[in-house]
Amino acid sequence: MAIQTRHIAYQHAGQTYEGMLAWDDAATGPRPGVAVAHTWAGRSEFEEQKARELAQQGYVGFALDMFGKGVRGEGAEQCQGLIAPLLEDRALLQDLVRLAMDVMSKQAEVDATRVAAMGYCFGGLTVLDLARTGADVRGVVSFHGLFNAPGNTAGTKIKAKVLCLHGYDDPMAQPDSLLALAQELSAAGADWQVHAYGNTLHAFTNPQANDPDFGTVYSAAADRRSTQALYNFLDEVLA
Prior knowledge:
The protein is 35% helix and 27% strand. α3 crosses α4. The longest helix is centred in the last third of the chain and has 18 residues, at 220-237. The chain has an eight-stranded mixed sheet with strand order 1-2-4-3-5-6-7-8, sandwiched between helices. It is globular. By secondary structure, it is an alpha/beta fold. It contains six helices and ten strands.
């Protein structure tokens, strides 16, 4: 038994993107696939490790790419500059995440009938937008994601089950935005859940997060609880 990985390049509008696939070579036959959408800093070792952990649990993990091959951000100003075009053009964001899901689903290791997506921070918004488009995926999981609606999916039925793992004191997704999301998901007929962790800020799964003034602080308890919630959810939706 060993976790294998490979990088997969794909194209959109003349630009090259690159994701990383992870799977257990002891598995026989295709396995459920779970895409991992990255933070505003771009695909990094953090998301790639999450993909490997998914492979250890019997899934195929795919750390996708929303910015382009090799594009990474350092510091808040640079990272904000990377996500700004996609926040302003949510249709493009939706096209890119749907493409990444299609690329993952076509891999020989993946059972294309059983796929899900999860994401962190900006990646949480990304997978929520995937669900909002009515994509035919089993489920999406947002970790300390952003909740603001895209404005181009009203009236679309959400097929995916939705799980939001949320720090209640997250300054980037305050309680009013959580209530608005609940109303939006209910109106779209979604099967949705929110797990809100008290006294917990943004980026609670990232051990490097330690900036209370910016609102990003790691929480070992919320990290542990949200990871367990993730695997409970995947067990359900990808059975």
